Amino acid sequence: MTVTEDRPGPGSGTPAPGGLRSWLRGRSELGVSVLLLVVGLLVVIDTLAESGGGTDSDPIGPRTIALVLGGALLLLSVLLTIDILRGGRGEAEGGEDVDLDAPMDLRTVGMLAGVLVATAALIPLLGWPIAGTVLFAGATYALGSRAFPRDLVIAAAVSLVTWFVFDTLLGVDLPGGPLMAVFGG
Known about the structure:
- With 185 residues, the protein is an all-alpha fold.
- 60% of the residues lie in helices and 0% in strands.
- The protein contains 7 helices and no strands.
């Protein structure tokens, strides 16, 4: 008869004697739980620190939605943590064809980061329509599309439509840059 030592396994909620690091390695989803907790706390604290309340026509005010969303984030964090500690794991999608052993494509990541930085720098100088065109066309190039004229036309159209929707229909003032004179802004 052989006697085996009972050690907590991957489904148990307590760290194995091997150390906290090896225990956490099998529960990487806890990082998402911590992120939800931090964002939820930030939303709730920031909302409570705000002094704006409702008005006579809107007694609930904008704080209510922020508090509900912050509370929901905190609740999701707790529920996710409980699920993970009980042995629950997220499963990869059936159609996912990503090779996790392949190295990261730093060229693509670098190009996308450059496009984002360029867009942020161009918005105050040239306005959203031009900066958005750079963003959309640059992202399609970074992700592998090489149909330059088509991508540029689609990027310009998407950028102009988003600018028009936000600026005119929603009342969110996006800088138009030099195109404001053309479109009567």
